[in-house]
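Limitations

Structures in this collection are predictions, not experimental determinations, and the ligand pose is part of the prediction. Treat each record accordingly. The example that follows, with 3-methyl-2-oxobutanoic acid as the small molecule, is included so readers can see exactly what is and is not provided: the inputs are given verbatim, and the output is the predicted complex.
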Amino acid sequence: MSYLSTEQKPKMPITLSTLQKFKANGEKFSCLTCYDASFAAAMQTADIDTILIGDSLGMVVQGKSSTLPVTVADMTYHTANVARANNHALIISDLPFMSVATLDRAIEASLAVMQAGANMVKIEGGSELCDIVSVLSNNGVPVCVHLGLTPQSVNVLGGYKVQGKTDDEAQKLLDDCQKLVQAGASMLLLECVPSGLAKAVTDSVPVPVIGIGAGVDTDGQVLVMHDMLGVYTRKPAKFVKDFLSDKDNETHDIVGAFKNYHMAVKNKTFPTAEHSF
Ligand code: KIV
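Predicted complex:
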């Protein structure tokens, strides 16, 4: 059985230049996390622009209490499963906890997920990553840097909390973003930061910025797939919306939820103030 059904019309692959054009034209792009072939194919049917194989799989797939136990082998396995079933979305893979602690580890981990089918890697941190970003991007690995609430640092941050609330923190985030883009970052991801700060970052960098809990003004939006399907075992975060049971999902099915999410991002009707900080 092929996960790319014969009914799927060929679709143009979304590339980094597509996302650059979207940014230039003010068109938003959708991103969802995904970890397997069946959901990756459903996301292709729904036209989702970008897919993140997030290390959130440690929680939503493996049942662990954080992302810290996830390995490069886990990321490689799930990236290959997704890439096999979707040839439309730009595929971004997380490099898991400690895999960018040294340049050698970052190169090994990037090699593994890129050879499994990723189009880009995502790493968590700030301007301390500039050298790694530079080496990876100079060697054909586009890099997305995840700033704000960085779940791999939960033990340093003291919990999953909104970041960038003070003037000093906000300025540091803005400066880090500038430095990372200068070092070669092709994309930024902001998690749980005030909407005004996310807008300031988005307006000040030439690369696409994805947000989660960062307001409506970033260039793209991402949600964890299980969250937006209402599949959670703990109270969902403020930025989550359940698109499966939403009254606008007339088909009441998963592809309908993905399509409505995609359109809500494009039309800027998601996120609202209710989902933002
Ligand atoms: O791992 C993940 O799913 C993520 C998202 C929360 C952005 O990094």
